[in-house]
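Tokens for chain A. Residues wanted.
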């Protein structure tokens, strides 16, 4: 059935040929129909006729063509759709209401011819040609062929209910210029004015419904859905628009199946099995009423998982489907419900005599009351005769149900639209002239301009595509107290609003299974902040794995596609969902380690001051004089500076502190080692001077000692000055993974290692000389203690190098301070502690005689 619209051009040619005259030369001209015309199901005469066509039945009897006689009359079959019958009767009611008005088409009566299309294209095409040409089987004209075409049999047409028959009719009406206003054909394809120039509708296009459905699905967080559609123009175009909108919203479709009611049951069963096996818990059904009936009945045959149904406007507002409890909680959009005053009374105003005049109403009566009217010979003998006792007021079916009146109002608006267009053509400010003959194109032009409000308060106008503004109610199927389902409005959608504001909720939703929370339907759970989505190979983008962000990266929202790297001075928190400022690390004054090192530094400096005081108070004693008091005091001064220079390494580095700490350390230590080296040389020279004929001491007297210390120190000063001028140390923020360490950059690494190398060279030289003098005869040979002190000094600084390179952060500075303090304490304990011990605790040994070796050395 879905492909029959492609036959329309061929059918239209055949139909027009049937109306063409055998020739125009002979008089009179006689044209005869090749088949009997279709009789209207409901009709009423008037000055101007409005056509109506509705899907009152869903099947058409198909007769096997023998090609030996003319095909029989087309006939509808199957069950009757009482709601569609209400649509047809609503058209009749509207025309009666218009005829009773004085402000619209005053003095003009409208009539109607209403047909049943059976939702079949052949029937719709045949009726379309009858609307264009009339019902007369013979056209007789005593003159030659008319130069201008005769006016159409109807001024305009209301209908059809389905999209596929509407497409076929719209193509034909476009050729004749007859305006068609549909109340229910929602296919977006019908908005194409190049193909369907005279098509209008009072129901919104599926383009808007598809966008609204996609927006709703996204709103509730469903990213993994199933889709099923009617295999017709309505379903295929509607689902295509929905899938496009869903893709833009990031929604994935697990399956998309199609079914049409005339297809074999094997196809229906396959679609039902796909739905049962799926993992998606939400299903979007873009199905016509006649198709979803079969699908729901098939699904009830076997157990199936609980599904959240999302319905298209065609069936979500149809009360006939409320009997399917499996669809409880269903959601979908419908045109707003309305009230049409007087319609309910009109629908119930049917007498038995009136019913018996119409085969359609007769069928309705018999099906509603399960009886047979007299004279109906085809009725079953088991069915009672209708006797007039039937009470239509007691009927409870879709025909009498006027509680919603959604699409019924669309029929009401469509009929009024055509009436206003006729009024615009034949009426002026004073009166209406019903004798005016007008072309359908004139009515079409007026119809484009209509803009009015109906008696029940609804505006009617059309855009350039012949469509109205899209306004929907969100319908939810909820259980009533008596256990039956009811349609409840829970939200609204207005396409005229700004993006993001079209959809709004107005009340709580009852979900499938009676849940109060939104059911979940996702292929993969949402990825929390701190992770990113990685699409699973060969699967839709909604199926993914959650991968933790790489080191140094974060994701601060759910379902992030990518992780973001933190700025250089920031680092992710433990959850990797935000960047925190990296802690700035340096050896601060309030740090426990810094406090301990400061205490040792001050203690060392205090010890050096105390030793200097002891030496000064005993400066005339033999032990002080024998060990070169001048160099000793200079050495103590340099040790005080060594202890204190370690304090420059504590605190945040600055430009000046970085230059001071390295140069002060280098110069004070060279001064210290120079003094020790001087004392070592003095020891060697002193014992060399005792040899007969030696005058070596005159070459290394006090002046030479001072000059040697000055020269050795000056060399280090020159190295430091060059270092500071060429590339001085500087403060910088060393960016580590999780922290920032404030350090002093060396500037020139050559300068730094030159300073350390020079200190090491002097220490090595001092160690060698002291080692050579360690066994010289004397009870208090200072060379022994210098040797040991230099051994400690060299050991400390040799181990310092790898420890300095490998220590992280502030511990690098701590290692350097420790090396300074350890080597300084080594010097002070090895060189000065024994002397102080003798001065304070062994004053009897502080004699020249003892120092000159007159007493056995073991006394020491």
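Reply:
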């Amino acid at each position: 059935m879905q492909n029959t619209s492609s036959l329309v051009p061929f059918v239209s040619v055949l139909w027009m040929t049937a109306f063409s005259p055998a020739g125009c030369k002979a008089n009179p001209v006689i044209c005869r129909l090749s088949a009997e015309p279709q009789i209207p199901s409901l009709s009423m005469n008037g000055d101007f006729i409005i056509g109506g066509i509705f899907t009152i039945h869903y099947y058409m009897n198909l007769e096997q063509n023998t090609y030996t006689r003319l095909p029989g009359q087309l006939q509808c079959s199957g069950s009757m759709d009482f709601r569609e019958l209400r649509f047809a009767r609503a058209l009749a009611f509207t025309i009666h209401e218009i005829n009773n008005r004085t402000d619209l088409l005053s003095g003009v009566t409208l009539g109607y011819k209403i047909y049943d299309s059976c939702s079949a294209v052949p029937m719709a095409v045949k009726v379309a040609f009858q609307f264009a040409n009339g019902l007369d089987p013979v056209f007789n004209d005593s003159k030659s062929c008319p130069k201008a075409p005769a006016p159409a049999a109807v001024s305009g047409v209301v209908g059809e209910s389905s999209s596929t028959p509407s497409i076929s009719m719209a193509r034909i009406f476009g050729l004749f210029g007859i305006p068609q206003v549909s109340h229910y054909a929602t296919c977006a394809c019908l908005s194409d004015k190049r193909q369907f120039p005279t098509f209008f509708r009072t129901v919104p296009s599926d383009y808007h419904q598809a966008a609204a459905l996609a927006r709703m699905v996204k709103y509730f967080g469903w990213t993994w859905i199933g889709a099923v559609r009617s295999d017709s123009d309505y379903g295929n175009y509607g689902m295509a628009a929905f899938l496009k909108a869903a893709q833009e919203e990031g929604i994935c479709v697990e399956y998309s199946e199609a079914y049409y009611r005339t297809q074999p049951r094997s196809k229906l069963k396959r679609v039902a099995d796909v739905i049962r096996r799926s993992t998606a818990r939400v299903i979007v059904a873009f199905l016509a009423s006649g198709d979803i009936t079969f699908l729901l009945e098939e699904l009830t045959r076997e157990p199936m998982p609980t599904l959240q149904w999302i319905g298209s406007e065609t069936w979500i507002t149809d009360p006939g489907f409320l009997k399917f409890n499996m669809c409880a909680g269903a959601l979908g959009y419908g045109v707003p419900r309305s009230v049409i005053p007087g319609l309910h009374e009109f629908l119930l105003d049917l007498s038995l005599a009136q019913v018996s005049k119409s085969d359609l109403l007769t069928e309705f009566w018999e099906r509603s009351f399960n009886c047979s009217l007299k004279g109906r010979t085809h009725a079953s003998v088991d069915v009672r005769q209708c006797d007039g006792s039937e009470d239509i007021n007691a009927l409870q079916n879709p025909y009498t149900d006027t509680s919603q009146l959604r699409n019924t109002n669309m029929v009401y608006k469509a009929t009024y639209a055509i009436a206003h267009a006729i009024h615009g053509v034949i009426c002026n400010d004073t009166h209406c002239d019903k004798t005016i003959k007008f072309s359908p194109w004139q009515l079409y032009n007026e119809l484009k301009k209509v803009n009015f409000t109906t008696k029940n308060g609804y505006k009617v106008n059309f855009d350039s595509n012949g469509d109205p503004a899209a306004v929907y109610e969100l319908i939810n199927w909820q259980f009533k107290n008596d256990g039956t389902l009811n349609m409840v409005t829970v939200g609204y959608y207005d396409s005229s609003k700004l993006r993001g504001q079209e959809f709004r909720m107005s009340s709580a939703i009852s979900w499938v299974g009676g849940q109060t929370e939104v059911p979940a339907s996702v292929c993969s759970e949402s990825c929390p902040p701190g992770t990113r989505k990685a699409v699973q190979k060969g699967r839709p983008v909604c199926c993914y794995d959650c991968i933790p962000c790489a080191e140094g990266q974060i994701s601060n929202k759910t379902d992030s596609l990518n992780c973001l790297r933190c700025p250089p001075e920031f680092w992710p928190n433990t959850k990797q969902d935000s960047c925190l400022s990296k802690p700035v690390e340096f050896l601060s004054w309030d740090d426990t380690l810094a406090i301990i090192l400061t205490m040792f530094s001050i203690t060392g400096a205090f010890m050096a001051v105390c030793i200097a005081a002891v030496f000064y108070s005993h400066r005339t004693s033999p032990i002080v004089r024998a060990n070169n008091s001048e160099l000793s005091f200079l050495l103590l001064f340099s040790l005080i500076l060594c202890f204190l220079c370690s304090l420059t390494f504590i605190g945040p580095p600055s430009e000046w502190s970085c230059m001071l700490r390295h140069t002060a350390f280098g110069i004070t230590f060279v001064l210290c080692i120079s003094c020790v080296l001087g004392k070592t040389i003095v020891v060697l020279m002193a014992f060399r001077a005792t040899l007969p004929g030696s005058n070596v001491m005159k070459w290394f007297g006090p002046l030479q000692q001072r000059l040697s210390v000055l020269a050795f120190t000056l060399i280090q000063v020159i190295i430091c000055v060059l270092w500071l001028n060429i590339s001085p140390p500087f403060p910088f923020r060393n960016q580590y993974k999780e922290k920032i360490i404030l350090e002093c950059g060396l500037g020139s690494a050559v300068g730094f290692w030159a300073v350390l190398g020079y200190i090491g060279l002097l220490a090595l030289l001092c160690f060698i000389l002291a080692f050579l003098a360690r066994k010289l005869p004397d009870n208090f040979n200072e060379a022994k203690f210098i040797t040991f002190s230099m051994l400690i000094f060299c050991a400390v600084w040799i181990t310092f190098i790898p420890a300095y390179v490998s220590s992280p952060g502030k511990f690098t500075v701590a290692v350097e301070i420790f090396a300074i303090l350890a080597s300084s304490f080594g010097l002070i304990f090895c060189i000065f502690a024994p002397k102080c011990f003798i001065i304070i605790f062994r004053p009897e040994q502080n004699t020249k005689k003892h120092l000159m070796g007159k007493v056995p050395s073991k006394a020491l």
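Confidence is low (pLDDT under 50) at residues 1-26, 854-860. The radius of gyration is 53 Å.
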